[in-house]
Design brief:
Elements: H1 15-22, H2 25-29, E1 42-50, E2 57-63, E3 74-75, E4 78-80, H3 87-99, E5 107-111, E6 115-116, E7 122-130, E8 143-150, E9 161-167, E10 170-177, E11 184-185, H4 186-199
Parallel strand pairs: 1-7
Antiparallel strand pairs: 1-2, 1-4, 2-3, 2-8, 5-7, 6-7, 9-10, 10-11
């Protein structure tokens, strides 16, 4: 299954420049993230940047509606870190299981800051590069769709959008990245914000 075609990345920030910026560990580390707390399950996600000539894009999934948690939500491939695994190994294994991505293909660059979800997962985002074309086979019991999100919105200083809603009697604040079809929010949006901070010139973390 091929991913949907991405939009073009405007301006001079072409694939080579994206690779240069994301290859800098200091840039990857400046993206902020939630402060880790004790307890909770360790997890990892793969943050795959597909290096199209027309402009790099993120590879995302839409979780199956039949899943017991986060059904129908946009997510990066990933899941729990199993005993004996490091985050990179877990992210590659989960991507292979969920979307059929050959674990030999991603070129891992490093880690974005850990993100702690509202459900207590401590998620390590692992940034990797992918060269197209990709031959992906999603697991139907886990993934409804694989699609691409162009990097252009991540370079817009006016994004992501900040929204709030009442959840379990409390007002919660969260980030949303615009997309014509899918609602990109929650942990995925927060990790994309960390990536955006790493990509943008001279931008510090904006909590």
């Amino acid at each position: 299954m091929a991913a949907e075609a991405p939009g073009a990345l405007p301006g001079p920030l072409a694939a080579a420049e994206v690779v240069r910026r994301l290859s800098d560990p200091a840039r990857l580390g400046r993206g902020g993230g939630a402060v880790a707390s004790e307890g909770g399950a360790a997890a990892a996600v793969l943050v795959p940047v597909v290096l199209h000539d027309s402009g790099p894009a993120l590879l995302l999934t839409l979780r199956a509606e039949t899943l017991s948690s986060h059904a129908g939500q946009v997510a990066f491939p990933g899941g729990r870190i199993e005993p004996g695994e490091n985050p990179e190994q877990a992210a590659l294994r989960e991507a292979a299981e969920e979307i059929g991505l050959d674990p030999r293909l991603p070129r891992i660059l490093g880690r974005l800051p850990e993100h702690v979800t509202g459900t207590g997962f401590h998620v390590t985002p692992v940034v990797a590069l992918l060269d197209p074309p990709l031959n992906l086979v999603p697991a139907p019991d886990e993934v409804a769709l694989v699609f691409e999100y162009a990097l252009a919105p991540l370079l817009d200083p006016a994004l992501p959008q900040r929204r709030s809603a009442i959840w379990k009697g409390e007002r919660r604040h969260f980030l949303v990245w615009p997309h014509e079809t899918h609602y990109v929010w929650g942990a995925t949006a927060a990790i994309m914000h960390s990536l955006a901070v790493a990509l943008r010139e001279g931008e510090a973390q904006d909590p």
